[in-house]
Each structure stands twice: as structure tokens, then as C-alpha cells.
Amino acid sequence: MEDVQARHPNPLVVDAGSGNAYLGFIVYELFLKDAQAGELLSIEGRPELTERAKGRAERLHFDRMRFQTAHIDAAQYPERIHVLMALHACDTATDDALVAAIKHGADHVAVVPCCQAEVAAQLKEKKARGPGSMSLLFQHPMHRREFGSHLTNVIRALTLESFGYQVTVTELTGWEHSLKNELILGRRVHRDNRRARLQLQALLAETGVQPRLTRLLGIMPAGAAEGSVPEGPAPEGSGSLTEPGSEGEAAPGAVPGADEREA
Ligand SMILES: C[S@@+](CC[C@H](N)C(=O)[O-])C[C@H]1O[C@@H](n2cnc3c(N)ncnc32)[C@H](O)[C@@H]1O
Questions:
Q1: 53 and which of 21, 83, 122, 167 could share a cystine (Cβ 3.0–4.6 Å)?
Q2: Distance of CA 7 to the CA centre of its chain
Q3: Interval 175-220: pLDDT, tens
Q4: What 3-state class would DSSP assign to 262?
Q5: For residue 92, how far is its CA from the centre of ligand 1 (angstroms)?
Q6: What pLDDT shows up at residue 174?
Q7: For the residues of 12-44, what is the DSSP string, one character each?
Q8: How many CB atoms within 10 Å of residue 231?
């Protein structure tokens, strides 16, 4: 927050899958209230939660908090997002939040994924490709769930990297408070990172999974025939971040000197 507040006069923070918007209220109280600038946009699919949070914001005179009842993948976003956060956005809603961040050039991303079922289901359908004993890692349903969750988050981190983010994966809080505790932080320092893109494509090919995040962004497994994937259209503008030749260029608004740390 301090970084975007130093660099943008009116930063926009998005809280995707905001529920009661508790996280948004805290961020507003700590960073936006006294700054007299900046907006916080909460996106939540359940209208009763949006209405309740809206009423609370009015009572608190948090005038620069906005609320939208919408699915994360169908919400109306301003052209530019500066910070996107998603705390326990269910299953693939975290992927939708990451797509919004990437499409709208968010400088910073912070997601703590929730329950994850999609990749575990894909692992059940497809045995891992390639040589080795990879499929032994997810023979049992419990292993499949854990491995699927881990693989999902590895793919999320690599996807962010491939779009030029410097990624940190850490714990949100003590494990005694929540088992959904993996915090993925991204800070955009390049337009893209081709090495990470190749690693991601290799991982998709080796594991045989194609999660929603990579489908929506049109990221193909290594060696896939052109046009064979993905389900659903790539979002408008996603290609503009990955054009050949842009690797290593600083992202708009990137932190000076950040280039030296990546790619
Ligand atoms: C586990 S709650 C977390 C709420 C809040 N972020 C928090 O940590 O207190 C997940 C919230 O995401 C919302 N949600 C799930 N999928 C969504 C989607 N695709 N679009 C919008 N909201 C979604 C749910 O309605 C729910 O309120």
C-alpha cells in the first residue's frame, strides 16, 4: 500500500470475493482514510453481503469504499487497478481475481487461496504424462486433494511470474488460526518473463492439468498443438503483456531498479 500510495495520486484497491468486506475496512482504515485519496472497490457475489457492507461504510463515512455485487470474472473494473487482494475467494474465484489483476496491470497482488477442487479433479481424470513415478504422488484421494492444491498454487505463482511479477509465497498467519494460510504476493516489475512462461508450460505438459487461470489467459502446455486449447476466450488485452520482445522491459510504473532483480 505504501508503495502504490507513493507512486499514484489516487490508487485503486480491489478486494475480490470480499464477503463482509472486513479486509477492505481494515485497509481503508489503515491506509486510505487519512490519505484523503484512493478508492477501495469490493467485489462480492452475494447481494446481502454487499448491502450490509455498504451500510457499514456509510455509517463510518468511508466515502471512498465502493461495492459491486458481481462475479469476479464479470465485474466492471476501472481500466487500471493498483492493488488486488483476494482473501479466501473460493476455489477458482482466486483465478478470476488473478486474471483481473493481470488484465488491469495491478502493481501489487495479494491472494490467500481457499478450498481448491479443480486441479484435483483433473488429476483424477489424467495420469501424469512423461517418464517417472509422478502419478504416485496423487493416487489416494487425500494426496490428490493436497497435491492438487499445491500444484494449483505453484501454477498461480508461476503465472504471475510469467506476467512480470516478482512473487513471494509465505504464510498469512499462524497455522493454528487457519489451514488456508498460503499467501501469494506479487509485485509487478516487468512486462513479462519468458523463462517463467516456459517453466509454466513445461509444468502443464508434465502434469497434464490445465487450470482455469491458464485457460483464461490462453497459456498452452509445452508441445500442445496450436489451437488445441484453451476452453473459453483469452481475455482482451492479455496478449499485449506477452508480446515477443517485451521480456525484461520494466512494467509501467515499475519500481526503479527492479529490473536487476528479475529475468
Ligand atoms: C470464504 S469467503 C471470504 C470473504 C472475505 N474475503 C473474508 O476473508 O472475510 C468467500 C467469499 O467470496 C465470495 N465469492 C466466491 N466466489 C465468488 C465469485 N466468483 N465472485 C464473487 N464473489 C465470490 C463468496 O460469496 C464469499 O462471500
A1: 21
A2: 22
A3: 888 888 999 999 999 999 999 999 999 999 999 999 999 999 999 9
A4: coil
A5: 11
A6: 82
A7: EEEEET-TT-HHHHHHIIIIITTTT--EEEEEE
A8: 8
Could you tell me whether strands 12-16 and 83-87 are parallel, antiparallel, or unpaired per DSSP bridges? Answer: parallel
Alpha helices in 40-140 (DSSP H): 47-60, 93-103, 118-125
| Rounded Cα–Cα distance for residues 115 and 239 (Å) | 29
Task: Report pLDDT digits (tens) over 127-163.
Answer: 655 567 888 899 899 999 999 999 999 999 999 999 9
From ligand 1's centre to the CA of 87, what distance in Å?
8
Q: Ligand 1 pocket by C-beta < 6 Å: which residues?
A: 17-20, 22-23, 43-46, 49, 71-72, 87-90, 93, 96, 114
Number of H helices, E strands in the chain: 8, 7
Look-up of cell digits 486474471: 99
Phi, psi of 8 (to 5 degrees): -130, 130
Residue 80: Cβ within 10 Å count? 14
The predicted model gives 65-85 an average pLDDT of: 98
Asked whether residue 225 carries a pLDDT value surpassing 90, the answer given is no
